Amino acid sequence: MVEPSTFAFNIMIRGYAESGLNHEAILLYIQMRCEGLEPDNFTYPFLLKACSDIKQGKGVHSLVVKNQDFQSEIHSLTCLITFYCSLGDIESARLLFDRMSERNVVTWTAMINGHVKQKSYKEGLELFSQMRNSGIEMNELTLVSVLSACASLGAIEMGKWVHEFIDRHCIFLNPKLGAAVIDMYGKCGNIEEASKVFKIVPQKSVCTWNSIIGGLAIHGCGEEALEMFSQMQTSGIKPDDITLIAVLSACAHSGLVEKGKEIFYKMRRDHKIEPNIKHYGCLVDLLCRAGLLDEVYEVMSNMPVEPNAVLWGSLLTACAAAGNANVELAETAMERLIKLEPSNDGNYVLMSNIYAAKGRWDDVAKMRRLMTHRQIVRNPGHSLIEIDNVVHEFMVGDGRHPYSKEIYSMLEDIATSLREEDYAAAISL
Fold first, then answer.
1. Molecular function terms in GO for this entry (predicted)?
2. Does residue 337 have a pLDDT over 60?
């Protein structure tokens, strides 16, 4: 082309970026500017696709800010938010989002999804509430992200509201949205409702089957999960690696040790799926729950990949739970955990408890000195409760909640009433 237009350059920049040729895409943008061509609404979003790190993305961001025509251009700014979220820079994304004078459903969804992917579920739901109050219509992707946050927090009231919204607005329950609703009910403790939704989803994909099998697994319905697994294959849906994780988890939660081992060791032959670290994690969990600690160590010693902290943590927990704790095996697990996650306070506490159960008080003191030396502080426990579609978080001794005084006053009243009841019961005896 003798005089390629901005449109032509945009197409080539996007083509290079989508082919993984990021450097060539950026050079093409430079060539375009050197030839005196001005970018349009699509140039910067396509250029962002070629950015592989935060520094490059911030470079594109600066170009958008310098160009008066794009400072408030919603498409380019939304793409920037999506870019920041995809690389985990939720703070930069939120800063840009808060400064935007205009936002559409894509902008709100990108920001909510960014929070959910970074496991900031509470913030994601708070943002969703703001979106609802602003009058912006929700799309399928918004609902999927919100349902995922509800599932992770156990916010079933909000999840029910989303499900009712889907029914009320006659939104088609496609496989992805159906799977999100099923997953939400399963993780929030209502497996019956999850099963009802599964039956009415018109088109069941692998993710739909995975959601119901996973829900049955966490409820300890191992036999039902295996039956679903069988129906899935009969219906012509090929299991994927997530399916096998759900099935193995079902076996672990239901004590189906031999069946779980059979499924794991036949994965390659029956389903052409190579076991990864998560599948080994399920097998280790299965064996740990059954108290087969020596077999667990054998599996971990012969794995084709190096066991991670989750696997060693499972073994340490199993050693602590065993009536006659295997201290040597626990020490082996602890030795690896100190290298993999040296600041995890829970591991030190578990090891200390194992020593205490054996009456090895010198080793208990040694473990506490090690925590002090490494400046490891025990993280306080916390709990969540959902009231009127708002998730409240509480920590031990926490006074940040706006109704802290009233809450502690009520707790004191309850404690006083309980003491009086105990006293009255003692007198009557």
1. mRNA binding
2. yes
What CATH code is carried by the domain that includes residue 327? Answer: 1.25.40
Give strand pairing partners of 387: 390
Q: Give Cα 83 to chain centroid, integer Å.
A: 19
Structure tokens at 50: 């070629």
If you count them, how many residues does the chain have?
Answer: 429
Q: Please give the structure tokens belonging to residue 74.
A: 């919603």
pLDDT attached to residue 391: 67
* Domain assignment of residue 199, yes or no: no
Instruction: Give long-range contacts, CB 8 A cutoff, 24+ apart: 333-338.
Output: 336/307, 336/312, 337/309, 337/312, 337/313
What range defines the domain where residue 57 resides?
1-102
Give the span between the Cα atoms of 286 and 276, in whole angstroms.
16
Domain count, the chain: 2
Closest-CA residue to 217 (of 228, 232, 203): 228
Confidence of residue 426 (pLDDT cuts 50, 70, 90): low
Kindly tell me if the per-residue pLDDT of 387 is higher than 90.
no
What distance in Å separates the CA atoms of residue 244 and residue 296, rounded to the nearest whole number? Answer: 19
68, 102, 136 - which closes a domain: 102
State how far the Cα of 217 lies from the Cα of 202, in Å rounded to an integer: 23
Classify residue 180: in a domain, yes or no.
Answer: no
Q: Is residue 162 part of a domain?
A: no
Q: Which of 76, 102, 128 is the last residue of a domain?
A: 102
For 138-148, what is the mean pLDDT?
94
- Give residue for tokens 């509470």: 122
